[in-house]
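[step 3/7] fold_predict: job queued, chain A
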Amino acid sequence: MSAHTPPRWDLSNVYPSLQSHEYAAAIRDLEAQIQAVEALLAQAETLDVSSGIDALATAANRLVDAYNSALLLRNTIEAYLYSFTSTDTFNTEAARKMSEFELLTVDMSKQETRLRAWVGKIAPALPEVTALPGPAEEHAFQLAEMAQLSKYLMSQAEEALAAELNLSGANAWTKLHSTVISQTTVEFELDGKVERRPMPAIINLRSHPDESVRRRAYDTEMQVWHSLREPLAAAMNGIKGTVITLNKHRRREDALHSALDANRIDRQTLDALLTAMRGSLPSFRRYFQAKARILGKEKLAWWDLFAPVGKSDRRYTFPEARDLVLENFARFSPELAQFASRTFNGSWIDAEMRSGKVGGAFCMSVPGVKESRVMLNFDGSFDTVSTLAHELGHAFHDSRQFKAGRSELQRRDPMTLAETSSIMCETIVAEAILGQVTSPAEELAILESQLNGDSQVVVDIYSRYLFEKEVFDRRQKAELSADELCEIMERAQKEAYGDGLDPRYLHKYMWTWKPHYYSEGLSFYNFPYAFGLLFGTGLYAIYQQRGAAFVPDYLQLLAATGMGRAAELAARFNIDIRTPDFWRGSLAIIDERIDRYQKVASKI
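[step 4/7] structure written:
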């Protein structure tokens, strides 16, 4: 592997190998810890509000400590296994061990349900319990949240059965989707050479400078997704049907209800966000129309959405991307730059595209060693440089929580706030480079990268929200055919993109490969990204006003994102997220970029 080849990650400091004694010992240790939690739960369940505050506090303290310890080990093992199954879906041994591990952790899912139910039972005494020194006091917010969520539990027997059935039900559908997408390859001619390429590589060609390549990649996608649509529609129906059934028995209003609780926001906040997003759509259509003119078209086709404009033929080697990120991180915070340097030097990143590796990008915590790992499919484009900065932001967020000594329960960030650091880091890199441009062509290329990302997170995610909402509404009545899913997707895209795109060439199969739709536990895995972008953009605007004085407060916020509801944490910066005004202010910053984009485009 040459110095310019994107790296692969290394987790040998966690366990030497899947076959190692250390890994086997960790599994045995987890089994023992699960048994210990079981014993403590059985004791606690004999107590109620009449048992006295001291007895309840003792039980709560022991349970919080024991469950945090088991979570720490479970999350470490899970990250270690996922490091194999996400980068090599052909690895049958890793897949088998992951399956064995998931069977083991079903007991922990049951235990958390029982813990939540017990906390709900002692809810009237909880303020006094958490007023006493100890782990319960340190987890007062988490325990209060458990008490609130306990209202939406089935009986213990039903919850236990649901956890067991999930392995062969919704989780199996999720695995089917991941396996089908990651293992599908197709022959594609590029630069005169025909090669069999994985689908993430085909999808990445959407940003190729040659329109004929983009169009052929789009057509190839359409053909491949058409051939796979039936099993993927079955997976979608299976997962959404499971969610609907469980929500009904848990007395949830709808799938959105649990997503709001998971993201620690209310419907008023979501309505404020969506109202601002809808109001911004005409501005984004100005951007799409301006881009169409640059490309010499009346309207953009879907394969033109990611077309590079300006001086966009630059391809970065991975070392160049690393240096670019480190230089600009250092301008914001030496601590951020030092941390990022550690990730590069410590082999925390898997960036190479290859068959068997899942698409997209993510960052995962490895709490047992207080580290993270970053996965992306690096192709040298500015977009993947931005993705690198984005995922490193997640890793830095983890590091701030580790540094603050947060437990696993305290590190459970809502998705709405989980994007805070990633958006900031992505913006830091783009804005710093934008301030150093030397030509209109270069300026246009950077603005294009920013607005392309902004439009995906605001406009496309709005379409995804519309799609998922209609899918849930209609799935309550009957299963949806692949054709119906395509019709819903196209309708959602037309509503979001409007006259910004050529309606003849949309992406009706977007639902097939986006993994966000294929998770029983994470419905509406879309609006939190828009929340994160606009919340992070708003924070960046505050940073521009306050400069270096902003950074200490920001670092404290990152350490606290698992410690309160979003509105309470936002209030630290005098931000009211329950009204559209804040969101409109963040969108106004993007609107200024669109104005600048139009002006620069007129010069070229």
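[step 5/7] annotate
Residues 211-249 form the longest helix (39 residues).
The first strand starts at residue 185 and ends at 190.
exit 0
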